[in-house]
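so ive been stuck on this for like two days lol. basically i have the seq below and the ligand is zinc ion, smiles is in there too. i just want the complex predicted, nothing fancy, no docking runs or whatever. if the output looks off dont worry ill sanity check it later, just need somthing to start from for the group meeting slides
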Amino acid sequence: MTALPRICLGCKRAFRPRSGERHCPACQGALNRRQLRRRQASGKRTGSTRAWRMLRAEILAADPICVYCGAPATTVDHVKPVSKGGAELDPANCVPACASCNVRKGAGWPRSGNDYSNLLGGG
Ligand SMILES: [Zn+2]
Ligand SMILES: [Zn+2]
């Protein structure tokens, strides 16, 4: 009894399965790598780390007022977005913000971070 060749679901080429695989070794390896990468990415999302949660809680406890509109702050916003090189865990780069201002700034806040330097510097 010889194992019959099977057509790989990925590349449609014939291969000899060792057990019940439906992909050739090359495609199976690619699938495994993709699953691994997805698992790594889900565990490393911005805003979900323990350090960030602690920093956010400290900032909201110290000054729970939105720097943009003065409403009660429920979130912490990065003055310089992390995506643009801002330090995610630097307290000097984090300001308390209400949810609506945080969303609005994320969608394109018109002002620059320099406008808030007086707010950040004052104790
Ligand atoms: Zn294949
Ligand atoms: Zn606000």
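The mean pLDDT is 81. The pocket of zinc ion (ligand 1) is lined by residues 8, 10-11, 13, 23-24, 26-27 (CB under 6 Å).
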